[in-house]
Amino acid sequence: MKRPRFSVQKHFASHLHYDLRLEAKGVLKSFALPKGPSLDPHEKRLAIEVDDHEISYLLFEGKIKEGYGAGSVTLWDKGTYTIDKESDPEKTLLKGLKEGKVHFTLQGKKLKGTFALVKLGKKEKEWLLIKKADSFASQKDILEI
Ligand code: MN
Fold it and tell me: Is residue 103 within 8 Å of residue 116, measured between CB atoms?
């Protein structure tokens, strides 16, 4: 099966943040990362669930003129993801997101290895993005690369 795609966009809005997009069954599951992603398993990065985006937005770069998110967007990383040996990673991702916890493995240029998204208690839209301690874990500041 073809691997689903992911991207991370660097979004220069009123507050600089990063947006994680994961392709799943015709949409992009989307999370805003106020502090960006990290390869350090000790860093738990807040990930705010935002509305699904259209697939066509995956590799978007450019200016958002007005409204929420106004500012410019550059593509920070892109690649594919897998989930263990699951034959349908998109389905498994959606199931995990519904249940509040999912592990996925990224094959990007900057982000590689396995990450967990874990929903925070009762807070509706708040998750943590946590790097698993695998061979791609690093304390290097990935945002500076
Ligand atoms: Mn954004």
Answer: yes
What is the C-alpha end-to-end distance of the chain, expressed in Å? 31
The structure tokens listed for 76 are 């920070």
Q: 11-30, pLDDT tens digit by residue? A: 999 999 999 999 999 999 99
Tell me whether strands 27-33 and 62-64 are parallel, antiparallel or unpaired.
unpaired
Q: How remote is the CA of residue 28 from the centroid of ligand 1, in Å?
A: 13
> pTM of the prediction?
0.95
Calculate the alpha carbon distances from 122 to 4, 95, 118, 119 in Å: 29, 18, 12, 8
Which protein residues have their CB within 5 A of the ion that is ligand 1?
11, 19
Contacts of 31 (CB under 8 A, 6+ apart): 19, 20, 47, 48, 49, 50, 117, 127, 129
